[in-house]
Amino acid sequence: MKSIVIKCGGSVMEELGEAFFDSLLELKKEEYQIVFVHGGGPAINSMLELYNIPHEFVNGLRKTTPEVLEVAEMVLSGQSNRKLTSMIELHGLRGFGVNGSDAGLLKAECINQDELGLVGEIKAVNQSVLEMLFNEDLVPVITPIAAAEDGTKLNINADYAAAAVANAIKAEHCIFVTDVKGIFIDGNLTHQLDADEVEQHINDKKITGGMIPKVTSALNLISKGLNSVMIVSGKEKFYEDGIWIGTNVSAKREVLT
Asked: Rounded distance, CA 48 to CA 72, Å?
């Protein structure tokens, strides 16, 4: 079974274009199983502000009180997941929205409850749930909400959730969807970079501004055991006639096939 995991942030979801879905359809015709893991950061922030719920980030992770978790799950499951699943359906694929805590799909434990509250790290992925959906030719659309052994729900960084799923199903590719084609160095799209080169380009200020969080997310995924992550645009084709279009960021130099 060939599979790819696609991580789509909440800010990018609104910008997914026809060409992006054309690439998904092409991959599906080539018998790839496709899994989405999505975030919803901007919408969560807006809802927290609407309800006047204090919120903050600690070391890049959202500190998650019970009140914050309730809002996060409401937005992720009730808004972001519904929207992305509907978009997938409208473009000819059969999307199936699922909360990561459902049926023990994502099992996790708290990272540091004193500092971060209800933030978890995934310890296991229930592959049988995904296999069941694959067998029905469905595209799982997963929220990064997991469950602890005692049933407590935990907020998971969407990057880390995508990496855990990709590792569990041994995905051929992990795709990180952004609003640009990939990483540009000196005005040119770079097709291959390793982690050391990324850090060097940041130090040399060749990777700047809004590109830094994008490559940081890619490095986060790699830090969880993935060999590589492909940064692609959600507005354009990222796969056509067997060719991947974007920047492949690897733990070490590799040739993409």
From this structure: 8
Q: What's the CA gap between 103 and 195, in Å, rounded?
A: 35
Q: At 64, is the secondary structure helix, strand, or coil? A: strand
Distance separating alpha carbons of residues 173 and 49, to the nearest angstrom: 36
Q: In the predicted model, what is the mean pLDDT of residues 218-243?
A: 90
Q: Give residues with Cβ within 8 angstroms of 249, minimum separation 6.
A: 183, 193, 194, 195, 198, 215, 218, 219, 222, 228, 229, 230, 231
Q: Is 246 annotated as a binding-site member?
A: no
Q: Which domains does the chain have, with CATH numbers?
A: 2-250 (3.40.1160.10)
Tell me what pLDDT residue 86 has: 97
Residue 155 is labelled as binding a ligand: yes
* pLDDT tens digit sequence for 170-194: 999 999 999 888 999 988 999 999 9
Instruction: Kindly state the average pLDDT of the residues 222-236.
Output: 90
18 pLDDT band, cuts 50/70/90, is very high
Asked if residue 40 belongs to a known ligand binding site, the reply is yes
Q: Give the dihedral sign, CA 71/74/77/78.
A: negative
Alpha-carbon span 255 to 15, nearest angstrom: 30
12 φ, ψ to 5°?
-90, -25
Instruction: Give, in order, the Cα–Cα distances in Å from 75 to each of 10, 39, 131.
Output: 10, 10, 26
